[in-house]
Amino acid sequence: AQKITQTQPGMFVQEKEAVTLDCTYDTSDPSYGLFWYKQPSSGEMIFLIYQGSYDQQNATEGRYSLNFQKARKSANLVISASQLGDSAMYFCAMREGMNRGSTLGRLYFGRGTQLTVWP
Amino acid sequence: NAGVTQTPKFQVLKTGQSMTLQCAQDMNHEYMSWYRQDPGMGLRLIHYSVGAGITDQGEVPNGYNVSRSTTEDFPLRLLSAAPSQTSVYFCASSELSAASTETQYFGPGTRLLVL
Asked: Which region holds residue B83: left if phi is over 0, alpha if psi is between -120 and 50, else beta?
């Protein structure tokens, strides 16, 4: 079974509008971390936001926020006030065993969502 | 501070050839990983290392070898290249912050074409 599922291959949003990119995950480990990365057409991977399974509040980083619903095992990325430069591929990822150093660097990625922002 | 560097940026191989993808980081991170990215598949973990001298397999290790003789370097070796290994390869390094969160830094990637 896939550990990370992103069901939206592509999303379109108008500039200045908000958009939500979906991510669901599957793990039985109580300690895990969820990450979102942006990959523009140039190819580099850019870290956006992190949410730990024990974090009480949803993570926020500027225009990015993570809608973390633990019971539903979802970790959706919300981008507010979209900009043309937000057009990119977005990946959700998870690391299990956040309380174990031995799992550092072992991320499971979803297949990504291609976001297109139009003027 | 160059971060994570990868060489080469592009490579074309013939089936059966061997080569090494280089990865280096100057942040003194203990944890390093190799991923491959295929269209529609996201990134998949090939091998990872939790410190010099210690490596382990990820999701898709077949056809690849790694070693970690120093903290800085983590080369990925293709023993006998196959067309199925055509992909973009990313190296990454990680640190665990005092807040028990993780920051993973990715290199720029190596595009490999196996004919």
From this structure: alpha
